[in-house]
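Q: Could you write out the predicted structure for this multi-component system? I'm mainly interested in how the pieces pack against one another.
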Amino acid sequence: MSKIARQQSTHLPPDTRRTNFNEVVCGYTETEALTESGRCLQCKDPLCTSGCPVRINIKGFINFVSKKDYKGAYKTITEANLFPSICGRVCPQDRQCEAACILGKKHEPVSIGLLERFVGDMAQQNGWQETRPIVPINRTAAIIGSGPAGLACAYDLAKAGVSVVVFEALHLPGGVLTYGIPEFRLPKERVFKEIENLTRLGVTIETNRVIGRIHTIEDLMGRLSFDVVFIGTGAGYPKNLGIKGDALNGVMSANEFLTRVNLMRGFDFPRYGTPVGMGKNVAVIGCGNTAIDSARTALRLGPENVYIVYRRTLEESPARKEEIRHAIEEGVQFICLTESKEIISDNEGWAKGMNCVQKDETGSSEFLLNVDTVIYALGTMANPIIARTTPELTIDKAGYIETNKENMITSIQGVFAGGDITRSGGAFTTVIHAMSTGRRAAKGMLEYLEAVIAANGRPPKFRG
Amino acid sequence: MFEITAVESFSPSTFLWEINAPEIARAARPGQFVIVHCDETSERIPLTIADFDAVKGTITIVIQAAGKGTLEMMAYKAGDRISAVAGPLGEPSEIENFGTVVLVGGGLGAAPVYPILRALKLKGCHTISIIGFRTKSLVFWEGRFRRYSDESIIVTDDGSYGEKGLVTQPLKDIIMERQINRVIAIGPLVMMRSCAEVTRPFGVRTIVSVNPIMVDGTGMCGSCRVSLGDEVKFACIDGPDMDGHLVNFDELIIRQKRFVKYEKQSLALYEKKCPK
Ligand SMILES: Cc1cc2nc3c(=O)[nH]c(=O)nc-3n(C[C@H](O)[C@H](O)[C@H](O)COP(=O)(O)OP(=O)(O)OC[C@H]3O[C@@H](n4cnc5c(N)ncnc54)[C@H](O)[C@@H]3O)c2cc1C
Ligand SMILES: Cc1cc2nc3c(=O)[nH]c(=O)nc-3n(C[C@H](O)[C@H](O)[C@H](O)COP(=O)(O)OP(=O)(O)OC[C@H]3O[C@@H](n4cnc5c(N)ncnc54)[C@H](O)[C@@H]3O)c2cc1C
Ligand code: FES
């Protein structure tokens, strides 16, 4: 079976995709999916599942695919992962399930991500959803943040009969899935479909609500009488560049750049009011997913050159390998082993170049990169709003919320947290990790509702 | 959707909106702002909460038409609805009985000074307000200011109303003459910088409200970053109130021009669509 080559999905050709925001990877046709599912050895002791952070029964769902029982495949996946259409696209399969696939030892691993996506998209097209009737249990939960952590938590709570309200600071839900990851990699339609499914389960999403400001957590549990709260606010605060010239015009964080393009649709300026403000020669500093997304987004806005300036080697980049390949195909120029030293200003405060130092075994050399736009993607930190307005909450030195890893409860009774806001810097922060901690929290919240509230007849007071 | 409950015009380019937003009105504190997002295609526009009434459930914003986004806002009438208002945002102003405080408002900046003035007065401060306008026809809210000021001074650039000159002159006179515990100055960047320079030699704590270009207003993008001494602060979550003696105004003034090219393009398009 392994003689059959790994099925490649159709990709838009690099020259075309550089000019638009259409999805680059077209996804499997049914024939391709069937052929690929046939490559799976259906191992007795499959390794792939151990590579999956949420332990999807991969062998099982692929078996369903090969029998054309796509609904069965969907059910199998969603036992562990609620959003296959999203994860099939953005999970780093190359270092998770596919890295563990036994076929990869000699040949190429089964394309688990593309199969998962195929099943997820099929479900969205056919409107498959959880059909078990929901039995309301007369309990309420407030979810702060509508990123993957918050959405996954809301899903499980809603299915268990809890009445759920999601509070989102921005005018659109989805967190990084909406404002960060670009359309050509994760069409927003996919994200909004999943959110629609959630609202169909009865979940209310209130956008434009910055918790900590409009309501504090104490308000949520007091005045607004929520029984439990989940904090899934992400770690969106961009790290500063911290080199000379970082305040110049033309220098911005990847979050600002991507938000202007994705959330505010600045690529369609002036029809949409928010400009992007990108110049002709663009340097992106960093080489994670965010940096690659920024560089590829920049490329689509038609500049002369887009560079990625990275202080390590390409092999060390934490980004999905496929995205790096796509970036190279599209014409992003990689300058590795290179430190950005200083951004040079013109007479009016605009960036006009960046001094860099490239180092290798033979020594180091300095050069001036001719750029008028510098986008820095050096990672993000915890956003301080919730912590500042909730002094009772225990946070670590870097501002991340401390939780019990079993049930994700925080230092406050009835308040749980998950996703990027619960992990300290440097940790591997992914969509699937956010979702799995969101679900773990939902389980913890349900247990809490059952145990604590049943014992007292009602939830304890805030700080209780 | 949020309903605009009242519109008032102060001059051909300045106007007031009262918006029905009970949750925001309840939570709002002096010094905070909202982000207004009129419809799907518009920018997210940060505007200071110039007044709020928790009982009525309304907030008031006062707007200077500066470009396409704010010009478009001028077309709305009472009863119209806008897509989103997010807020309150930012740290509230410090409100304590500081002793004698001088509150300086320049032009439209007078509006955001008002709720701070009122709160400080109600806390027991001795309040001195200085509000300045280019000319008499632009003066607004004089009565409101007088009501909460122990002493109030109005200046106009051309002398057509009140004293002639800039707000910095009476500020200097007062500071030289008596013990002032705090100065709050809100208005155009150059005006706030001048006020901070007036008070610096006297070591009087001077709070300004910075207005860098924003996108989300939640601390996620860094568009609003401001150099404050050796530190970098985000105006939307650490401010907008900041220590006027530490703010790097020169940098801020340059950063205000980040999108000038695009703003002109937007404006030209708007003017073509809606000739005067
Ligand atoms: C550009 C980019 C590309 C990425 N690519 C990948 C990828 O390919 N694969 C992968 O696995 N991971 C990727 N990641 C990482 C992944 O997106 C995150 O780990 C994940 O989104 C974290 O989910 P979350 O739910 O914890 O938070 P977020 O997705 O950050 O969502 C948090 C939400 O909470 C809201 N919020 C914050 N504060 C408040 C408040 N006070 N009140 C109300 N709402 C609030 C925010 O507005 C936001 O919508 C990428 C990240 C970025 C930035
Ligand atoms: C915290 C804060 C409070 C503010 N309070 C008020 C207020 O009470 N009343 C009022 O009239 N104005 C206020 N402003 C300024 C107001 O937001 C801008 O004038 C408005 O965004 C201009 O948009 P525009 O499309 O009309 O003009 P544009 O043509 O886009 O820009 C005109 C000028 O406004 C500034 N500006 C543009 N976009 C933004 C933005 N997103 N954020 C901030 N400044 C921008 C720039 O310096 C620009 O040169 C405040 C700004 C901030 C940050
Ligand atoms: S406006 Fe984006 S961080 Fe302040």
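A: Regarding packing and overall arrangement: The longest strand of chain A covers residues 351-360.
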